[in-house]
Model the fold of this input.
Amino acid sequence: MTDVQKSFDELISLAIQREEEAYGFYMKAAEYAELPSSKQLLKELAKQEEGHKKKLQSALGGGVCETFSCATIEEFEGHDLSRYLIEIPLESGSSSQDILIVAIKREEGARDFYKSLSELTTSTSHRTVFESLAKEEQNHKDRLESIYDEQIQPWM
Done:
């Protein structure tokens, strides 16, 4: 495995870890949700994040790291892909508004990360996987923004 492939391997492994964290985040947020509809949505999002993890594990096992178009470590680093996977902490005692804002930012980062990977892979099947993941993360973001608009800022 080349250094570039190893770097992508580490990045995909980090993305898997972030999907695991997203699952835990949504399950914990569901425990604190006041409305049954919010609780249901958060559990549904958690389940989908678990599905994302499985897709990433499958891609990793399927040799996805050999399909990226970066030829050098410098080129890989130039894409700064890890910026999309930063951990956004949630303080204990966070309000519903805080939880939604963090969730929206996490989904936005995940969407941008998968979109970037879809543009870098030379494999059509892997491109489809990453495009699908980006679309699902966008759908999560849209749903969370809708809840935010309805529950946090209904006057807008």
